[in-house]
Amino acid sequence: MITIRTSLAALALAASAITASAQTQTVCFTDAVPLQPTNWTSTVSIPKFNPNLGTLQSISFQLTGNVQGTARAESLDAGPTIVNTSFSANITLTRPDLTPLVVTLPLANFSDSFTAYDGVLDFAGASGTTHAGINVTDTQSQVSPPPVSDLALFTGAGNIILPVTANGASIATGAGNLITQFQTDAAAGVQVCYVYLPNTPPTITCPGPLMASAGVPLQFQICASDVDAGDIVTIDVSGAPAGMTFTPPLPASGNPICVTVNWTPTAAQVGNFSIVFTAIDTRQRSSTCTVNIGVAECHLLIGTGNGNSGYTIFGHYYATQLSSLRTFFPVTMVDMPTFGWNQLPQTLTVQVVMYNPEMFPTNPDQFSRAMRVTKTGLGTLSTEYFGLRDGIGLRAEVFTLNGQPRVRFPFTIDGM
């Protein structure tokens, strides 16, 4: 037996990556043993799976064996006979401990009818034959695990050296007196593919830009997850303003993990806020998202008539178009109070005022016209407008809840 250490690793080694599914990926490596006379023992060198890529799920081994050569047979029998010849080699890929991974048996079969021995041992004529230029290939595959230990064996830095053997296995039968001669060369090609869950960073989702108003509760949710179910994802935050709370408290971990954010800005927090949320997985891969919140002051004023009165709310002075102010509500275009029909007097006057120096630096104080609202019947209203409009449109809306009429005062802000 000849032991040969192949030098083709540097030339034949190749890698390719393809997507196997929505989650798993595959990376493959190849090496080869060149054509040479059997019987031989050689090795192939295959890079181990890099754990930085992800978590190894399975390994597929493919062995392609090629056998080439010549088969000769001569019958020495005194009468005619049929000789059956099998030209082949047994090619085996093993682990470093020599336990087999894949076996191939390239095989070419021949059946020849011979006469009685013609007296000349030439592997030709009527009693002999020569099959030259034989070239056969066989490819076999195997997937591991089992055993589970292969996942650890093939993971790590550097290469793993895998022995390959090729042993001639040619035979001829049929004659009682038979001379055979086989010239057998064998080559092997090896492909090892690693199927793995990639170590992709976790995903984290944040809402788009948000508008908030001082005194109005704001709530939104941050969620994160990792494609690898075995990973734990931790959400944390930077730049959170005073008074902002998180449920569960941060940092919070899970996979998936969602955090509910609550915040009621104060009048002192009018302005723009950028809050950065970070998701970090078990392997310290991270992703971030940013929530941008613009905080203004916006109030729904309820009075008794139209006029020109000024009021200080949350420390900011507003010149209104009301004769008197009964109450006010911090509002946004989304969050606003609703009133039962009997909560409202027969006639009232409402106005919306806003202080937003961040979005409207040249015109921070904006307001709607004063709107007089009069009940004209159960569930019906009439409206009348007074004064000037600066950037805000206001209307009255009646809707039914649990069979009872209710009222709200939606508004719009120009440019938002």
Short description:
This protein is mainly β.
Beta-strand content bin: over 45%
The largest pleated sheet is described as:
10 strands, mixed
> Given the helix and strand composition, which structural class is it?
mainly beta
- How far is the N terminus from the C terminus? 84 Å
Q: Which regions contain 5 or more consecutive residues with pLDDT less than 50?
A: 1-22
Question: What do you see in this structure?
Answer:
- With 416 residues, the chain is an all-beta fold.
- The protein folds into three domains: 2-198; 203-295, Immunoglobulins (Immunoglobulin-like, Sandwich); 297-413, no CATH class.
- 2% of the residues lie in helices and 60% in strands.
- The chain is built from two helices and 33 strands.
- It has helices spanning 9-12, 149-153, and strands spanning 2-3, 14-19, 25-37, 40-47, 54-75, 81-94, 100-104, 107-114, 128-144, 159-168, 171-173, 178-198, 203-205, 210-213, 218-225, 233-238, 245-247, 252-254, 257-263, 271-280, 286-303, 310-313, 316-319, 325-330, 339-340, 347-355, 365-367, 370-377, 380-386, 392-394, 397-401, 404-408, 411-413.
- Strands 14, 16, 18, 20, 21, 24, 26, 27, 28 and 29 form a ten-stranded mixed β-sheet that branches. Strands 1, 4, 6, 7, 8, 10 and 11 form a seven-stranded mixed β-sheet that branches. A five-stranded antiparallel β-sheet has the order 2-3-12-5-9.
- A hairpin with a 2-residue loop joins strand 22 (310-313) and strand 23.
- The longest helix has 5 residues, at 149-153.
- The radius of gyration is 42 Å and the shape is rod-shaped.
- The two termini are 84 Å apart.
- The model is unreliable at 1-22 (pLDDT under 50).
